[in-house]
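[Automated response] Your request has been received and processed.

Submitted sequence:
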Amino acid sequence: MPSTMIPTFLLYCYVTSITPGPANLCSLAAALRYGRGPALRQWRGIFIGFFIVSMASVLITYLLGTVLNEYVRILAWIGAAYILWLAWHMLRSSLSDTEDKADEPCFRKGLFVQLTNVKIMVYCLTALASFVLPYTDSFWALLAVGLFLPFTGPVANLVWLFAGASMQKLFVNHRKTVDIVMAASLALCAVSLIWPH
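Generated structure:
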């Protein structure tokens, strides 16, 4: 990628990483409900999941190149359905008065969220296909960008996590309202993936 494209690439990374998505909203909700420690355990899984998706995106982009763009649309619909499922799950757990131990944040849950998070799949594939492939088809250039990407999304995810942890005491008495707002936010994320395409 030419040096003149680096500011645009970094802006793309920032905006895509900091905006609401499944991992950001799940981290916020986990920190609000369980506090910083359990949410950080989940975040470790989010980081590893992001790394795996990023490396898979490097391989897919290197092997398939521009043919891949045709399938990004299908991923958007699958991702929207998954995000709606997350919203429903969050809403359903909010309406239940009992705490489910299986809902507590953990490494495995964070890993699952990221391995099924179409937002980051599209994010990684778009970054590689738009900012690297037009200028070089070098595997090493794709790998360098692919190794950089896991330090964008998960770092922005920490902002959401620490915001949730700092607001935990404020929202402890408003759990149902917060979960409803988080579920509605996830639903908006789902709609934005497929609308107006």
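Summary generated for your ticket: Residues 21-194 form one domain. The mean pLDDT is 79.
If you did not submit this request, please reply to this message.
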